[in-house]
Structures are given as structure tokens and as C-alpha cells.
Specification:
- The protein is built from 18 helices and eight strands.
- By secondary structure, it is α+β, with helices and mostly antiparallel strands.
- A hairpin with a 5-residue loop joins strand 1 and strand 2.
- Helix 14 packs antiparallel against helix 15.
- The chain is globular and about 90 Å long.
């Protein structure tokens, strides 16, 4: 509705479907004011009691007419939610709702109110600073290394529309909701505008799996088995949501033609890209099949990793992890296909060694859907959501870091001495961050 309001802010134009201009203005007032159904009903009653001079009479009589008008305009923009079926681990079917991401790109870039704030050029800032210059600034996603590399690979004559997805799976276990909203942000507009309410697209709704009430099979399980069953169901739904999202972006991989709102006779081809998935820490671990850290391999290195951090720790990337996964697969296949006992034993030893390496790197041996993405990296194009950081949920990372340090020390006395030594420094540093000030001190 926020996106629709942006379109309505331009007023009635010839590009709208056959809608009474007076109805359109009245509907804009209803959307802008966020009126409820009873308020709409009362407003309609008051409206029809007034004498109007307009030659075009108001044809809206109640909420049903408002709904019809909303759907007519959304259909015209291609922004209706479409159902997609997801099969859960148990074989049940649930429905996900999602807009066409190409239509969202088109709505963003054909909005005349956003035209002056659009930025499409991948670049190094400040100009002339060079790839490895210490003076280089990372002021937006368009100055990031990955975006510049992806732009170079884009089809000739196309530009990338880098979107961020905010997906909060916390509601799947902490609320009574049945659907979780999927919010898209346009990284090609200025950062000062990007997260404002009117720029957010509620692009879809992911289904939330609740404990099945009245299911005899579920009721007969032990608490441990119930928790395991529920986890499998939710994990399968998350993977299904991710697959449908990726398919939506892949559908427009060659681009979508958008009219230039400042020059209607010209157009540009934009490719929607899921540039960043913003999630909470537990959901991050599930999406990248990691145990403690989705960004680097410190999670599986323990004392050795902390003792030689710069030497032993490296950032994860799709190429390295996917190649390691393929080596595990080949070793397992050789183990089962080789007839010679010695060779079979060697293949088994190699498979075990490679699996242990995955364990040391803090990863589960799982193939990720994101490995096939042509524009982004499965591990680098994901992050903790700004909402969770601002609300203090970033404390799980702080707590994990303290636990890692504790594991690095030999005794509890070493731990206490370390805390006493750095305590004042930690308090001072944490207090410098307004988003977490007072949450740990």
C-alpha cells in the first residue's frame, strides 16, 4: 500500500486504468490516513450527505468498493500478491505469497517522485582513489566490490537494481502469527531515504509453521521429538521461501524495460538482484548451514583460531565452500564405487578427513541454493538486519565472542583476570554505541 500511495501522490493521470478521478483522490485520502473499515464507512456516510459541485459523482460507497479500487490499481501495476505452494518436510502443503519482483523494480524506477534520488552507477569513491587505496570510501552498496564486479558481468545495456530483503523469522516461534512479511528495500536510492516507511515494499508473506493442534501423531511424540519435528518443518519452509524468492529474481535475469519518468520517450533495462538478505543470527546460521559464524571460519577453530587469528581465519565465499563440498561428494562416491579394498579404505579415509575439515570450519555438509546465484556470494551478501542490531539483539554476537575468549583461556582464574583487566575498557567502548548503550553495562 505504501508503494501504491507513492503512485497516487502523482494524482490522476491518463496512465491509470478507467478510474473516476474523484474516486482516485478520495481513495488517496483513505490510504494516506490509514482509515479502518468502520472509519471508511462513517466517512462515506458523511461524504454523501454533502452537496458537491464536481460533475463526477463519488462512486465509492463502502470498504468493498475501496478494496475493488485498490486491487484494480495494483493489478494495473502488476503488484498483486501471487500464491506459491511449498511442501514441508512432512509432506504437508503451505502457501507463500509474493509479488513479481520485476513489477517492483518497474514501480520504483518509473516513480517520478524518486527520479532525482535514483543512483545506478557502480564506482570507486572518491574518484581516482583506486582499488586498494586507504582513502577509498564505501558510502553505499554501489561502491562495494561485489556490486562493481556484478555490474561488469551484467548484460550489455542493463543496470542492476540491488534490493535488500528483510526477513524476520523470529515471529515463527515467538508470536501467534501465521505469516511473516517479506520487506524489500531499494539500495539504488539514497541511504537517507532507503529505510523510510514510504520506501518499503511488503513484497510477500512467508508462511509460519505452528504446532499442529489436534494432530494425534504429533501429540503422541515426546517433547524432544516434537521439537525436532517442528524444526524440520520450519527449516523446510525457509528453504522453500528462499527457492521461490530466487526463482522470482531469476525470472527477470535478462532485465525488465522501465520507462524513464523524466523523459517518457526513453527507457532503460534494469535487472532486479537480491543483493542482501537481512536476517537475525540464528536464521543466518540456517541459511548458510554454519554453526557459529556465517562470515568466516573462526567458529570451528576454537583456541587455535584465536591464538593465530590473522593466519588461521579466512572469510567464507561460495567458490571455496562449494569446491570443498564437491570434493566431499567425490570422495563419498569413490568410497562406494571402488572395488579394491586398499583403494576403498583410502577413499574412506579421505572422505573422513574432508568431513572433519568442514567441522573445523564450523559448517554443516550441505549444498546451498545460493551457490548458483550469478550476481552474489552466498556468504558475503547476507547480514544481520539493522533492526536487530538497533534493538540490541546483536548481543548474541558479543556473548559468543566472550565465550570464544573463555574457551581460549586455560582456567576460570585466567578468565576472571582477563575480565578485570579489560572491564573498564569494554564499558567505555560499548557506551560509545548509542544503539546498544545501556544494554550490556
Amino acid at each position: 500500500m505504501e508503494a501504491l500511495l507513492q503512485q497516487l501522490s502523482r494524482g490522476p493521470t491518463d496512465s491509470w486504468p478507467n478510474v473516476n478521478p474523484r474516486d482516485l483522490q478520495f481513495f488517496r485520502h483513505i490510504v494516506r490516513s490509514g482509515l479502518s473499515a468502520p472509519q471508511v464507512r462513517d466517512l462515506m456516510v458523511d461524504e454523501h450527505q454533502l452537496t458537491r459541485r464536481e460533475p463526477s459523482p463519488l462512486t465509492l460507497h463502502g470498504m468493498a468498493d475501496v478494496d475493488k479500487m485498490a486491487f484494480r490499481l495494483l493489478d494495473h501495476m502488476g503488484l498483486r500478491l501471487q500464491p506459491h505452494t511449498i511442501q514441508t518436510a512432512s509432506g504437508a502443503s503451505v502457501v507463500m505469497l509474493l509479488m513479481d519482483v520485476g513489477a517492483i523494480t518497474k514501480a520504483w524506477f518509473e516513480d517520478v517522485s524518486l527520479a532525482q534520488f535514483q543512483d545506478l552507477i557502480a564506482r570507486v569513491e572518491p574518484p581516482g582513489s583506486g582499488e586498494n587505496s586507504p582513502l577509498r570510501l564505501f558510502s553505499s552498496m554501489l561502491t562495494a566490490d561485489w556490486f562493481r564486479e556484478a555490474s561488469r558481468k551484467a548484460l550489455p545495456g542493463t543496470r542492476l537494481n540491488a534490493m535488500s530483503l528483510f526477513w524476520d523469522a523470529t515471529v515463527s516461534s515467538s508470536s501467534g502469527a501465521t505469516y511473516c512479511p517479506l520487506m524489500l528495500f531499494n539500495n539504488n536510492v539514497l541511504l537517507s531515504m532507503r529505510y523510510k516507511r514510504e520506501q518499503i515494499f511488503i513484497a510477500g508473506f512467508a508462511p509460519i509453521i505452528r504446532p499442529p493442534v489436534g494432530n494425534a501423531s504429533y501429540a503422541g511424540m515426546s517433547p524432544t521429538k516434537r521439537a525436532a519435528w517442528l524444526k524440520l518443518e520450519r527449516d523446510s519452509v525457509e528453504q522453500g521461501v528462499l527457492q521461490i524468492l530466487r526463482q522470482g529474481f531469476e525470472h527477470h535475469s535478462t532485465g525488465i524495460v522501465c520507462a524513464d519518468p523524466t523523459a517518457p520517450s526513453t527507457s532503460m533495462i534494469l535487472v532486479p538482484v537480491l543483493a542482501c538478505i537481512q536476517v537475525d543470527h540464528p536464521q543466518h546460521m540456517k541459511l548458510v548451514a554454519a554453526k557459529q559464524c556465517g562470515f568466516c571460519n573462526v567458529g570451528g577453530l576454537g583456541k587455535r583460531g584465536l591464538a593465530a587469528f590473522e593466519v588461521a581465519v579466512s572469510l567464507r565465499n561460495t567458490t571455496d565452500v562449494s569446491n570443498a563440498f564437491k570434493r566431499v561428494q567425490r570422495a563419498v562416491e569413490q568410497q562406494s564405487s571402488i572395488g579394491d579394498r586398499v583403494a576403498k579404505r583410502d577413499a574412506k579415509t579421505e572422505a573422513q578427513r574432508l568431513k572433519q575439515q568442514f567441522e573445523r570450519d564450523g559448517l554443516h555438509i550441505t549444498k546451498l541454493q545460493q551457490w548458483d546465484d550469478q550476481h552474489t556470494d552466498a556468504y558475503q551478501n547476507i547480514g544481520l538486519s539493522p533492526l536487530h542490531i538497533l534493538k540490541g539483539v546483536y548481543k548474541d554476537m558479543v556473548q559468543w565472542s566472550l565465550q570464544a575468549i573463555y574457551n581460549r583461556l586455560d582456567t576460570e582464574n585466567d578468565w576472571r583476570r582477563w575480565l578485570a583487566r579489560i572491564d573498564r575498557v569494554v564499558v567505555r567502548e560499548l557506551a560509545a554505541f548509542p544503539s546498544i548503550k545501556g544494554r550490556f553495562v
